[in-house]
Design a protein that fits this description.
365 residues, nine-stranded mixed β-sheet, five-stranded mixed β-sheet
Length: 365
């Protein structure tokens, strides 16, 4: 199953609005007969790829075991139902990690069992679900999964007092950010970051990567036609206020959104309206690369699902903090996180954390 999870991860950023799925087919003695993963929406599903790989290698899969990260689908969309493909191939046992929560595709396990296939679910479900967090979030909550990435010094500064921020972290950390971009459907920044850094936001040095949608949150449509983010290296969406003047941006993809309500902790656009728009466009995972103010607005909206912080062994003592106003005024209301990974990247530390279930609940005395 861990091999299947690793296979699924190869397609992160390329399958939306579909999930990432991996499959391994094993012979009676545990020999790998075939492997596959879902590579693109509309392409063969993982089970079909694995069956084809086994066939191409000359293996007989009758009575074999299929190990798959997601319950085999039970419906016909752009491809046929995987449950039926496994039955037709003569697979004798199916072990899957996560049950499919969608109304259309669920029921594959029942179909397999009814056909006499030994079926078991739940193996390494937590690991497989973590790998499919973006798709599961979209299905269960109707919005994209949001990963907030930031770079800071050890004293938490995202820039110096004079506004300079290039480069706080090392080349190793910056290269890793391109991995995050390649795994995301959309990369989001605010107008402040655009003015300060003129970022390009496209993926570099990742072979076969699908370029994410570049999203600029620009309430007053202050972006200039010469901004690097408006080139043709990747698609770009500019989110502006409902009454912003965009006549200087002919041909640009622009969406008009309402302003955030009172008490939202900032005066920008409504975060949930933005996420709803992106979800409607097929975006299932968002990499938030904006500055402190934009990050604060997402935290205040309860719309951050994972945090990746790149910490450089440097001190500034002044300058903007990595996170702006998030509407948190007291320690008991702090957004508590669970650290899930710590890694060294050159001289830097990369810390990955997720909000705890009771992240915003006040502690009892």
């Amino acid at each position: 199953m861990r091999r299947a999870v690793a296979l699924a991860a190869r397609a992160l950023g390329a399958t939306s609005p579909n999930p990432v799925v991996g499959c391994v087919i094993l012979g009676p003695r545990g020999t790998v007969l075939g492997e596959g993963w879902h590579r693109r929406a509309g392409g063969p599903h993982a089970e079909v790829e694995a069956l084809a790989a086994a066939s191409a290698a000359g293996h007989d899969v009758r009575g074999a075991t299929a190990v798959v990260t997601l319950e085999p689908c039970n419906h016909t969309g752009r491809t046929g139902p995987c449950a039926q493909a496994l039955i037709t191939a003569g697979i004798g046992r199916v072990v899957y990690a996560v049950a499919d929560p969608t109304d259309a595709a669920t029921g594959g396990a029942a179909t397999l069992a009814a056909a006499g296939v030994d079926t078991e679910g739940g193996l390494l479900a937590e690991e497989a679900a973590a790998g499919n967090a973006a798709w599961l979030t979209s299905v269960l909550h109707g919005r994209p999964f949001v990963l907030w990435k930031y770079a800071a010094t050890l004293d938490g500064r995202s820039a110096a007092a004079d506004g300079t921020s290039r480069w706080i972290t090392s080349a190793d950390s910056r290269a890793d950010v391109h991995r995050l971009r390649a795994e995301a459907d959309a990369v989001v920044v605010g107008s402040g970051t655009l003015r300060a850094d003129d970022p390009h936001l496209a993926v570099r040095d990742r072979e076969g990567a699908v370029q994410p949608l570049r999203v600029v949150i620009d309430t007053h449509a202050s972006v200039t036609p010469g901004a690097r983010v408006l080139d043709d290296a990747a698609p770009t969406l500019i989110a502006v206020g409902e009454h912003a003047d965009t006549t200087h941006l002919p041909g640009a993809d622009v969406v008009r959104l309402p302003r955030a309500g009172a008490g939202a902790g900032h005066g920008g656009l409504d975060v949930h309206a933005l996420l709803g728009e992106l979800h409607a466009r097929g975006v299932r995972s968002v990499l938030l690369e904006g500055g402190p103010a934009l990050a604060g607005s997402f935290v205040a909206a309860g719309a951050v699902d994972r945090v990746v912080g790149y910490l450089a062994p440097a001190l500034l003592g002044a300058g903007p903090a990595a996170l702006g106003d998030a509407g948190i005024g007291t320690i008991p209301h702090a957004l508590r996180l669970q650290v899930t990974d710590v890694a060294r990247l050159g001289p830097d530390l990369r810390i990955t954390a997720v909000p705890t279930a009771s992240a915003t609940a006040p502690e009892e005395n």
